[in-house]
Each structure stands twice: as C-alpha cells, then as structure tokens.
Amino acid sequence: MDDNLHSHLASLEEELSKLKEAVEYIEVAKISVEAADKIIDGAKTLQIKVEEHAKLIEDLIKKIDKVDFPSRLDKIDTVIATINQNISNLQSRLDSIESNIKDEVKQNTFNILTFVEKTFNKNEVLSNRILKKENILIILLVVVIIFLIGLGILIKI
Q1: CA 35 to chain centre
Q2: Its pTM surpasses 0.70
C-alpha cells in the first residue's frame, strides 16, 4: 500500500505541479486581460476623442466650404483689375491735363511777355511824348518870359 500510496502521491504531486503551472498561466492571463482591458478602455476613450475631433474637423471643413474662396478670389481679382484700369485711365487724364496746363502756361507766358513789351514800348512812346511836350512847354515858357521881359522893357521905355 505504501507503493500505491507513493504512486498515488507522486501522481497527485504531478497533478499539483500541472495545476500550479496552470494557476500561474491563469494569473499571467488575468494580468494580461486586465492590461488588455486598460488598453481597450484607453482605445475606446481615444476613439471617442478622435470621433469628437473628426466632427469638429468636419464642421470646420463645412464652414470653409461655405466661404467659397474661388468665388471670393474671382471677385477680388475683378476689383483689382478694375482699380488698375481706373488708375490707368486717371494716369492718361493726368497726362492730358498736364499737357494742357503746360500749353496754357506757355501761351500765358507769351501773352504776358508780349503785353509787358507793348506796355514798355507804350511807356517809351509816352515818355518821348512827355519829353517833347515838356520841351515845348519850356520853349513856350522861355518865349513868355522873353515876351514879358520884352514887354517890361517896352513899358519902361
């Protein structure tokens, strides 16, 4: 019986050893399952955050699409082209006005110089006339004085 007990004990020890290994595997598996549960929970949380961000990004894309950049840029381009054309037109008008002003200034300068020259000539002519009249007056005065002197001499005589 001792042998039988021994063999039975050996068999039980063998089973116990197997059970011990199985328990260790189970504990390792339990730890792995807990870690996997944490990873899964983290992944779920991450997935929720990703979905929230995806929703925000989708809303942002819709807002950006509503802005309609191509249409706006076309309008801006048209406005800029119109402004450039208006600037070009204004430049042409300014060139024309500048040319007209230069022509008018030249003409007015010529007219003023002509007027000044005529006035100077008239003044010269008037000056000569005045001198002639002064000379005539002086001669008349001399004649009157001579006449008066002559009369004074005659009266004394």
Answers
A1: 60
A2: no
Measured CA to CA in angstroms, residue 153 lies from 92, 138, 143 at distances of 89, 22, 15
Tokens of 104: 């008018």
Place of tokens 């509503």: 66
Cα–Cα dist 148/154, whole Å:
9
Token reading at 20: 């011990």
Tokens for 78, please give them.
């048209």
Residue type, 33: V
Which single residue is written with the structure tokens 């001198």?
131
| Averaged pLDDT, groups of 10, the chain, 157 residues long | 76 81 86 89 92 93 84 93 96 95 94 89 84 84 84 69
Q: H or E element: which one contains 74?
A: helix 69-156
* CA 10-13-18 angle, 5° bins: 130
Distance between CA atoms of residues 59 and 53, nearest Å:
10
